Every structure is written in structure tokens, then in C-alpha cells.
């Protein structure tokens, strides 16, 4: 190639490089201009708005302030009793066996009803508040006998002229009549069958008859052969035999074994559960029955306990059935107690304070044993008051309580207040003398992230 041609090619390459450099400069300038002067609508709106606030505020309100406690409770009867009787001994039976079940779970029953039968012996219910703790036998005395007499009379079985609390002849006849109405033979207090050898009354009667014959033989002798001392001794023997007979008769007769009766405070009573099965051996519990008006028992934490007191109104709600009734707080325990089973009630990790709620009207029997929600209005202000969120309050080193008002201009103004009733996350506040605070003012409750 000639020298002139080489110079011409070099010139063309230089011009191409220059053009590329010029284009790159133009593109860079265009991008810079676009990023600087051209914006999306969202960015343009954001740039046109005010800067993000650095605090969170809430309005001061004027309203009635209430403090509400919400907890859980269980519907139960005023009295709940587990049936765990020991059946009467039966020849050839290794252990008491359930032979009949007369009632079903969820059903009600009246006084004098046989609930189950154990080894052929009845277990029945009678009215009374005192739990049975011993066999009720002829000759016994006490409040439990008095309760038995009242129960017998309530079922139409007169106790005659027996003194109140004394198990005498009239009470014996009433017990015999009760068992006859139930369809069973009462057990004798002596523990043996009627007329069997070893019956104390039968034995005492034999002794009396023998003493009478001895005396008659002495009195029937010829006048010259009568021994006054022997006659006197025979009379004394007869008197002693008659005394033993009277004692035996006083403590003999039909009895009410502790294993065959349960006393309940009110009727109709309910069968909460039935674990007895015909043919099964008697375990620790045959059934659970309850009596009396249904109440709700709950557990409170220490802070909740201080807010509740007897007489406060309560709303009781069953989420299962939708039943909603009102009631009142009947009692609040002064000391905490862990519920049965070792579980802790009330506040997490702490023992609970038992609370009892009495419904204003009778609860449906289907709620027995159900878990329900309790809502208690624990405190309320008298009329409308100024309230602020609890988070708006701050306490200084000088023990003064203040709130910070954010003015429309962005300025902040501290207002000293006196706090009052608290509830539902708000606190009643009263400005101190000379301080200004009104409904609608915005108070600082936190700092925005």
C-alpha cells in the first residue's frame, strides 16, 4: 500500500473514535438530566408532601371510663358428691359388684331414688346437707340422725314419738317403710339375718324366758319349801335379763348403712357422670352427682383479684350453646389456692384466687360442667371524664405526672395532670390548677421508628 493510502485509513479511524467518544458523552449527559429532572408520579407526590412525623399521638377524649376483667369459669352445682360406696358382703362374692344402674348421665332425679345397686344392695339419695359419715343404727343419737328423720318425714314416713336426733322405735318403723317402698329388705343393725342364731335380741329373749321359768318354779313350790333368798335372786336375775333384752331391742332393728345412702342439699339433683357398669367391680367412684343451684367457679390473678368484690355484676357467656346470662360476684377468696390437679390458675405461673359467681336466674342444666367466659365491670368513672392512653403518661424525678401535647405548629407542651381511674388501656386525668388540656388535644404516646 502507498504512503498516501495509509494516511487516509488512519484519518478515518481517528474520526470514528472521536464520534464514539462524542456519543458516550451525549448519552451520559442525557441520563444525568433524566435522573435529575424526570420523576415518577409517586416520587413526585412523596417529595411534595410533609416530612414523616417523628412521634405518635392520640387524641384526648371525654367519656365514661370502665375497667373490665375477663376470665374463665366452670359451671358447677353448689354441691357435688362422688358415689364410692362399699357394697354389702355377699356369701361367695370376692368383691362388691355392680348389679344394676338406675340412672343415666345428664338426667335429674328426685329424693328417695335408687341410683345404682351394688351386690344386690341399693344406693339411694335423701335430702340433707350433712354428709353421711357412719352407719345410722337404732340407739344412735346426733345431728345426722335428726337429718335422717327429716328426710324420712319428707318422703311420707312418720318417725312417731321419737325425740329429734334419737333413733328410736318410730324411726325404725320409718326406715323399714322406706326400704319397703324402694323394694329392698333393710339390713339389721346386729349384722346378722333376722331369726338366725346369735341374734342379740333372740338371745336376750331366751334369757328372759329362762329367768321367768326359774322364778315360776320357785314360786310354785310348797309354802314350806320356798326359799326367800332364792326367790329374791331369781327376781333379780329376771330383772337383769329384762334389762338386757330392752338394751338389745333398743339397738336392734333396721339400719341405714353409710354405704347405701347419699345426702344431697336439693332436688331434683343431677347425674354428672356415671362410671358404674353392670357386672363391673366397685372402683374408687361409681358416679358423680350434684345438687343445688348451678353457680360458676373461676380463678383470678393477684391484680384481677383486687378489682373484684362481692355484689359486682357479671356477664356469663357459653360459647358452646350461646347462652348469655347475668349474675353477681358471690365471693372472692382472700388467699390463693392451686386448683385440683396441681394446675395453676389466674395469672400465668401463679396461684389463683377462687371467685364464685351466682347467676341472677337459673342456668340451664346442660351447662353443668361447661367452661364459660366471665366479664366483670370492675370499676367505672362517675360520668364523662378526660382520658388519655396509659402510654401518654410520664412521671418525672419530682414525682409529677405529665402528658405532652403536640400543637398544630409542631411545638410540644408539657401539661401536669393528676391520674385517676384506669381501665381498658386508658387513664382518667385532671389538669392541675393553671394547666390547659381539653378533648381533641393530641398527646404524645410514642416515637415513630
UniProtKB/TrEMBL annotation:
Main location: other
Superkingdom: Bacteria
Pfam annotation, one family: PG_binding_1
Family matches, as InterPro entries: Peptidoglycan-bd-like (IPR002477), PGBD-like_sf (IPR036365), PGBDSf (IPR036366), UPF0194_transport (IPR050465)
Gene3D superfamilies in the record: 2.40.420.20, PGBD-like superfamily/PGBD
Keyword Mitochondrion: no
Keywords attached to this entry: Coiled coil
Localization (cell): Cell envelope
Residue stretches making up the Peptidoglycan binding-like domain: 142-177
Ranges in coiled-coil conformation: 201-251
Name of the protein: Peptidoglycan binding-like domain-containing protein
Organism expressing this protein natively: Streptomyces prasinosporus
Amino acid at each position: 500500500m502507498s504512503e498516501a493510502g495509509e494516511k487516509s485509513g488512519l484519518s478515518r479511524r481517528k474520526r470514528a473514535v472521536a464520534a464514539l467518544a462524542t456519543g458516550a458523552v451525549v448519552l451520559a449527559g442525557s441520563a444525568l438530566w433524566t435522573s435529575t429532572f424526570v420523576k415518577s408520579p409517586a416520587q413526585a407526590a412523596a417529595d411534595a408532601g410533609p416530612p414523616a412525623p417523628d412521634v405518635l399521638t392520640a387524641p384526648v377524649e371525654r367519656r365514661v371510663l370502665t375497667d373490665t376483667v375477663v376470665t374463665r369459669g366452670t359451671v358447677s352445682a353448689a354441691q357435688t358428691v362422688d358415689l364410692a360406696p362399699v357394697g354389702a358382703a355377699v356369701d361367695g362374692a370376692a368383691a362388691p359388684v355392680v348389679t344394676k344402674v338406675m340412672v343415666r348421665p345428664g338426667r335429674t332425679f328426685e329424693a328417695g331414688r335408687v341410683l345404682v345397686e351394688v351386690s344386690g344392695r341399693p344406693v339411694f339419695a335423701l335430702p340433707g346437707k350433712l354428709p353421711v359419715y357412719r352407719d345410722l343404727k337404732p340407739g344412735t343419737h346426733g345431728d345426722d340422725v335428726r337429718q335422717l328423720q327429716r328426710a324420712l318425714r319428707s318422703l311420707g314416713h312418720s318417725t312417731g314419738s321419737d325425740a329429734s336426733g334419737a333413733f328410736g322405735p318410730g324411726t325404725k318403723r320409718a326406715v323399714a317403710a322406706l326400704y319397703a317402698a324402694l323394694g329392698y329388705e333393710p339390713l339389721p343393725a346386729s349384722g346378722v339375718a333376722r331369726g338366725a342364731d346369735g341374734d342379740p335380741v333372740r338371745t336376750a329373749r331366751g334369757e328372759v324366758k329362762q329367768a321367768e321359768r326359774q322364778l315360776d318354779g320357785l314360786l310354785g313350790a310348797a309354802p314350806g319349801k320356798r326359799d326367800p333368798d332364792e326367790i329374791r335372786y331369781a327376781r333379780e336375775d329376771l330383772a337383769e335379763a329384762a334389762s338386757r333384752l330392752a338394751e338389745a331391742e333398743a339397738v336392734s332393728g333396721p339400719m341405714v348403712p353409710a354405704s347405701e345412702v347419699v345426702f344431697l342439699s336439693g332436688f331434683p339433683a343431677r347425674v354428672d357422670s356415671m362410671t358404674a357398669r353392670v357386672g363391673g367391680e366397685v372402683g374408687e367412684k361409681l358416679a358423680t352427682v350434684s345438687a343445688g343451684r348451678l353457680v360458676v367457679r373461676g380463678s383470678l390473678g393477684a391484680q384481677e383479684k383486687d378489682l373484684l368484690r362481692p355484689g359486682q355484676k357479671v356477664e356469663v357467656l357459653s360459647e358452646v350453646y350461646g347462652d348469655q346470662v347475668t349474675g353477681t360476684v358471690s365471693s372472692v377468696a382472700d388467699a390463693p389456692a392451686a386448683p385440683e390437679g396441681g394446675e395453676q390458675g389466674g395469672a400465668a405461673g401463679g396461684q389463683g384466687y377462687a371467685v364464685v359467681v351466682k347467676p341472677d336466674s337459673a342456668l340451664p342444666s346442660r351447662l353443668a360442667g361447661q367452661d364459660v367466659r366471665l366479664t366483670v365491670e370492675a370499676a367505672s368513672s362517675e360520668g364523662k371524664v378526660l382520658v388519655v392512653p396509659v402510654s401518654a403518661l410520664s412521671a418525672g424525678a419530682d414525682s409529677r405526672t405529665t402528658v405532652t401535647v403536640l400543637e398544630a405548629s409542631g411545638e410540644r407542651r408539657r401539661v401536669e395532670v393528676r391520674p385517676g381511674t384506669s381501665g381498658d388501656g386508658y387513664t382518667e386525668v385532671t389538669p392541675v390548677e393553671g394547666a390547659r388540656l381539653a378533648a381533641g388535644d393530641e398527646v404524645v404516646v410514642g416515637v415513630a421508628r
